[in-house]
Backbone:
């Protein structure tokens, strides 16, 4: 029941001015020591491993996005870090100290639940103050810090509101404030924005990124949405089937997804598996015409025979109106941001997306060719590439 | 996390010891003392026993079913609609629960007399069923309403938007969601009806017998303790089967819900008004009319309407020697016993509920079920057992003041457990985890998360525990000291001798009992915090 | 002392005993005579009390069979009429007696109440008699025993068949009969099984006050109930128990009995209060049965009674 809020609601979308109140101390500029380190972590449930030999580390002050498809174990990993789930093996340590024997309530990690998990019998202020009460912070300081925190998340004066009257975005901010106000060593956020509409999602994302950065808050942000991960994180840990598949910056992931699964999951473009002869020369025949593989693929696994590698064809690779090219039929013209994308169909080839000028119509025929700069050579991952990722 | 699984079991240790010492030990003691294998076989094989068992069982099922049909609409209105006098209706509903059967019988008969139905009603099964509905209506309506009002109405709204009629919505969405609460309270009501005693004897007439009336007859009229023990054992077995079955059934139906504090909304539109009026009409017919007859009778004296009966109660003096003490003292005793019994039942019941909630293990189900068994046990047998085994230091309680509140607490505790468990089971584990991550120790989590969300159920349960204690007669008569009579005992003593004044005073005393109960329940309801104003 | 729930005594009586002897009296009650006796029997290994009071002649033999008592002959027993002393071994001491008789509501019998048990079965009283189930009620049992005593082992069954055909109503207990179906409580039955002393209570507890009871007593076919006290074997205070039995036969206690328990004192030296003497009906020839016979046949009689009247 996300009822519209009433009363003098401060606009939740405007960043509060001026910056963060003084009491929320920034973490030191250069955090000494290590942050979170996870080694060989295994979590089992009912005989099957939800997480298997998982390694991950997060530096202090870093925002790490944990990105993966639904069901890959992200939430389990988060709950294990928080101490809500007992691991079958491996270790979770903070600053070099093993946390296995530390119960959840002593870890001082903050957790933002996907469904907020606000206490329904307490108002906004009491929800935010909960952790401070557990730390036996005196009431006057508690009130001040709650007020400052609510101000920071754009909910100034919401203390006495019942949580049942909050909108989804407001509830999310309260959940965030509740976790942040205790100055946790590590903030864990579990798909906190999944249920929000796009503009709110984007604004909140920016706000959170700003707040976390200002506080130099170490954080793990779980999401299945790569745009969200890229927007908020310093580094992204890509998770797949209970393991960390790869950890890299958003830039690295986007420019060099390295394998077909990653490229598909990130929605970077169309994957094409060469069927023809060897490609040792760097020249390749494709349904879209001959292609000279870019030099950047050097050092990649040798594409000595077909099946070992594949090509990522990004939208920017698809060029129209070249004299040399193949004839393709246009379908699915849609607006993406400030550009227009269309899908091109060529016989005996997967459809590829490319940018078109506004005004393109489905059914029309265009001549297209591929520009090598938009093509990336990847490790083939055919065996594990399942259809479900295509929908992600 | 695994190591802390021990904590819930430890929580239940105190209440488990309580029921072990004050229920199990006396029960086993009296059964062992009176057991005879030959009599047992002969009694169990006797076709009359089979008849009695059959009647006991089917009337209990029929009474419980009828009670559900009558009480669920009331629960719906109490849960979903906010109207002037809601709390008062909530409290008044409990009142029948405490009335002595003989008083209720008198009220029923004079009511039926008004409609010219007395002859066709008296000493029939219908009289039994009607009395059981009268007594237990509130138990179902209040307990279910307490849980219902905490349920998020969104799923119902979703179903309605999808095109389901209100009846479909109730059947397909609401009823399954209410199943935990309905199952929990139905078990209580069933046990009450299963061990029904006064209603059967007085309204059912001399031709009808239940296991409980037969146990009583053999134990205290024929003094055939071996037969009484054989029947008590049969009763215990039936109750165990039922309790285990019901508890298992109920546990499978626990659903995590996003509990609210109160989802009732203002009455709006004519549909709401019709529903409200209809429900209040039913409540007035079921509970109000017999009570009105009682109040009317208490005001009648010497052929006119006067407060004479009440005035005489206030006087005390020679004419109330039957009581040993003044009526005011009886009221004071009742309140002292009830306060003590409620305290024991509430604390014990809450501990048990916390220990078993959210655990699907069989042990938890058995524990929860065990606390129901006293409800299904003959008061005579339990009374004998207490006098038999609690006879030596350190538990030489036969002359003790404590025996009464202890016996009452045994009966009150299941109400607390059953009112609290569904709410606790529905609390989302996420809330507990959220509190834990924010630094709350497990015990603190219970205090900060479980307890507040269970408060509504706890208030209902405590109210019933109080009412049970105020109204209990069967066990009280066995263990109470004559110079400390409770109000029901006083009513019985007044009704034990001829004279119109005695009868009128008994009626007046019953009305006082009603008012006491309503006020106590209102007060207990008030104890619960309103909404979320705690920052 | 353990007793039944009808036990009542004026303020100061027991206190006077406590003051003169230094013995503290603790009272315990069972729900009724049967449950009290059950308690005593079940706890006889570690008696719940020193003295039991209220066992009547319908339960007497059963209690004697259980070897519950230490014999004691109080000096005061000499003032008790011999016909009340049912146990030659003095294991129990008679304290009071009363008669279970059919009562009638004067205004509802057209000035022509039944005068004999046979008359009660007359069709002109059809539909106006309510009695109690002898399986669940003490006066109900007493009235059944009265009919057995009056009509003999051969005749009582036919008599009850006649009452059944006359539409006798049966309730579980005395209160339901007297206040539920008898005219006194607003019912429509003019005849009820109660006590010869009930009219006293009708005067004492009249509303408005009156000097004339609205009820009368059918003095034919009354069954005499005698209540006994006994000292329980295993008592830890034999002298105290004996002193209390003596006290119960003292004039102080005996003269307090009538207006509290509505029965006659056993001691012939006790003076009965005026209002009691005026309205309590003295039954000239009460019926009785040998306690041993009652103990032996009681279950058979009640079983036959159920078959005749209820089935």
Residues:
């Amino acid at each position: 029941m996300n009822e519209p809020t009433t009363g003098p609601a401060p606009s939740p979308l405007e960043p509060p001015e001026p910056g963060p109140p003084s009491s929320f101390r920034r973490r030191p500029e250069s955090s000494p020591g290590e942050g979170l380190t996870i080694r060989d972590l295994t979590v089992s449930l009912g005989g099957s491993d939800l997480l298997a030999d998982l390694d991950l580390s997060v530096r202090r002050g870093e925002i790490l996005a944990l990105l993966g498809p639904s069901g890959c174990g992200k939430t389990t990993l988060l709950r294990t870090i928080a101490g809500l789930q007992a691991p079958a093996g491996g270790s979770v340590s903070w600053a070099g100290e093993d946390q296995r024997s530390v119960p959840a309530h002593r870890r001082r990690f903050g957790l933002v639940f996907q469904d907020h998990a606000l206490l329904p019998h307490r108002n906004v202020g009491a929800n935010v103050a909960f952790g401070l009460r557990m730390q036996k912070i005196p009431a006057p300081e508690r009130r001040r810090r709650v007020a400052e925190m609510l101000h920071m998340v754009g909910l100034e004066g919401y203390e006495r509101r019942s949580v049942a009257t909050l909108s989804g975005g407001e509830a999310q901010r309260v959940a965030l404030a509740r976790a942040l106000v205790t100055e946790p060593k590590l903030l864990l956020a579990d798909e906190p924005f999944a249920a929000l509409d796009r503009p709110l999602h984007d604004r909140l994302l920016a706000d959170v990124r700003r707040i976390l950065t200002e506080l130099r808050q170490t954080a793990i942000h779980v999401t299945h949405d790569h745009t969200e991960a890229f927007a908020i994180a310093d580094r992204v840990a890509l998770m797949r089937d209970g393991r960390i598949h790869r950890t890299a910056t958003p830039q690295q992931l986007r420019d060099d997804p390295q394998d077909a699964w990653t490229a598909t999951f990130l929605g970077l473009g169309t994957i094409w598996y060469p069927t023809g002869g060897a490609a040792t020369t760097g020249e390749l025949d494709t349904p879209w015409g001959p292609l000279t593989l870019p030099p950047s693929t050097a050092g990649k696994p040798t594409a000595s025979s077909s099946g070992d590698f594949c090509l990522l064809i990004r939208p920017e690779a698809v060029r129209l109106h070249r004299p040399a090219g193949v004839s393709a039929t246009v379908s699915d013209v849609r607006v993406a941001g400030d550009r227009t994308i269309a899908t091109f169909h060529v016989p005996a080839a997967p459809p590829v997306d490319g940018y078109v000028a506004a005004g393109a119509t489905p059914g029309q025929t265009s001549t297209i060719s591929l520009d090598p700069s938009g093509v990336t050579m990847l490790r083939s991952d055919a065996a594990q590439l399942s259809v479900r990722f295509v929908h992600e | 996390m695994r190591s802390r699984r021990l904590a819930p079991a430890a929580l239940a240790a105190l209440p488990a010891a309580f029921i072990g010492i004050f229920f199990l030990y006396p029960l086993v003691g009296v059964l062992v003392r009176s057991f005879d294998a030959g009599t047992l076989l002969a009694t169990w094989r006797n076709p009359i026993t089979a008849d009695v068992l059959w009647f006991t069982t089917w009337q209990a099922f029929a009474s419980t079913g009828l009670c559900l049909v009558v009480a669920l609409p009331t629960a719906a209105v109490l849960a979903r609609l906010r109207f002037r006098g809601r709390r008062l209706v909530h409290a008044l509903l409990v009142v029948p629960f405490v009335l002595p059967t003989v008083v209720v019988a008198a009220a029923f008969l004079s009511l039926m007399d008004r409609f010219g139905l007395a002859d066709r009603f008296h000493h029939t099964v219908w009289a039994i069923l009607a009395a059981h509905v009268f007594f237990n209506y509130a138990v179902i309506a209040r307990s279910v309403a307490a849980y219902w009002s905490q349920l998020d109405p969104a799923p119902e709204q979703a179903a309605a938007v999808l095109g389901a009629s209100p009846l479909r919505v109730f059947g397909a969405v609401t009823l399954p969601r209410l199943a935990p609460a309905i199952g929990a309270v139905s078990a209580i009501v069933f046990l009450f009806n299963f061990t029904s005693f006064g209603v059967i004897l007085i309204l059912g007439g001399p031709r009808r017998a239940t296991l409980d009336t037969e146990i009583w007859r053999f134990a205290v009229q024929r003094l055939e303790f071996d037969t009484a023990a054989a029947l008590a054992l049969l009763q215990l077995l039936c109750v165990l089967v039922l309790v285990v079955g019901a508890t298992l059934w109920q546990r499978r139906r626990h659903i995590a819900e996003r509990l609210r504090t109160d989802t009732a909304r203002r009455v709006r539109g004519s549909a709401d008004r019709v529903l409200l009026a209809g429900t209040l009409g039913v409540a007035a017919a079921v509970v109000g009319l017999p009570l009105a007859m009682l109040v009317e009778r208490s005001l009648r004296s010497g052929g006119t309407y006067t407060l004479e009966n009440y005035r005489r109660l206030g006087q005390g003096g020679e004419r109330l020697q039957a009581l040993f003490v003044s009526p005011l003292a009886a009221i004071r005793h009742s309140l002292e016993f009830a306060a003590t019994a409620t305290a024991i039942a509430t604390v014990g019941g809450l501990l048990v509920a916390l220990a078993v909630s959210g655990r699907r293990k069989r042990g938890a189900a058995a524990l929860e079920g065990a606390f129901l068994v006293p409800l299904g046990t003959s008061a005579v047998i339990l009374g004998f057992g207490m006098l038999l085994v609690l006879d030596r230091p350190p538990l030489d309680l036969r002359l003790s003041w404590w025996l009464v509140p202890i016996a009452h607490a045994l009966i009150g505790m299941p109400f607390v457990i059953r009112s609290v468990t569904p709410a606790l089971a529905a609390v989302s584990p996420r809330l507990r985890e959220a509190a834990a991550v924010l630094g709350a120790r497990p015990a603190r989590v219970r205090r900060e998360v479980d307890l507040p969300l269970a408060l509504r159920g706890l208030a209902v349960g405590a109210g019933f525990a109080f009412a049970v204690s105020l109204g209990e007669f069967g066990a009280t008569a066995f263990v109470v000291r004559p110079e400390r009579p409770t109000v029901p005992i006083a009513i019985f003593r007044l009704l034990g001798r001829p004279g119109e004044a005695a009868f009128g005073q008994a009626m007046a005393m019953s009305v006082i009992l009603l008012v006491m109960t309503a006020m106590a329940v209102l007060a207990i309801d008030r104890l619960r915090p309103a909404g979320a104003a705690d920052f | 002392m353990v007793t039944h729930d009808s036990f009542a005594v004026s303020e100061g009586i027991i206190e006077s005993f406590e003051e003169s002897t230094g013995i503290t009296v603790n009272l315990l009650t069972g729900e009724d005579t049967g449950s009290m006796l059950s308690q005593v029997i079940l706890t006889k290994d570690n008696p719940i009390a020193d003295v039991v009071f209220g066992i009547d002649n319908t339960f007497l033999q059963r209690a004697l069979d259980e070897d519950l008592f230490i014999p004691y002959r109080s000096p005061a027993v000499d003032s008790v009429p011999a016909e009340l002393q049912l146990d030659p071994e003095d294991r129990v001491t008679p304290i009071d007696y009363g008669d279970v008789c059919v009562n009638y509501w004067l205004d509802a019998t057209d000035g022509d109440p039944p005068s004999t048990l046979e008359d009660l079965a007359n069709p002109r009283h059809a539909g106006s008699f309510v009695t109690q189930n002898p399986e669940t009620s003490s006066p109900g049992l007493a009235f059944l025993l009265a009919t057995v005593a009056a009509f003999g082992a051969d005749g009582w069954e036919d008599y009850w068949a006649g009452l059944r055909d006359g539409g006798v109503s049966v309730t579980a207990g005395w209160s339901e009969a007297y206040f539920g179906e008898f005219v006194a409580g607003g019912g429509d039955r003019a005849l009820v099984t109660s006590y010869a002393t009930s009219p006293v209570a009708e005067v004492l507890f009249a509303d408005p006050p009156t000097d004339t009871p609205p009820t009368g007593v059918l003095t034919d076919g009354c069954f005499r109930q005698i209540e006994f006290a006994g000292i329980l074997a295993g008592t830890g205070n034999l002298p105290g128990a004996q002193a209390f039995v003596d006290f119960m036969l003292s004039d102080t206690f005996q003269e307090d009995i009538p207006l509290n328990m509505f029965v006659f004192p056993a001691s012939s030296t006790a003076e009965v209060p005026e209002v009691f003497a005026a309205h309590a009906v003295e039954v000239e020839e009460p019926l009785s049965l040998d306690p041993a016979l009652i103990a032996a046949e009681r279950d058979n009689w009640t079983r036959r009674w159920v078959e005749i009247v209820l089935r």
The longest strand of chain A covers residues 48-58. The two ends of chain A are 28 Å apart (CA to CA). Residues 21 and 390 of chain A are 44 Å apart (CA to CA). The first helix of chain A runs from residue 74 to 82.
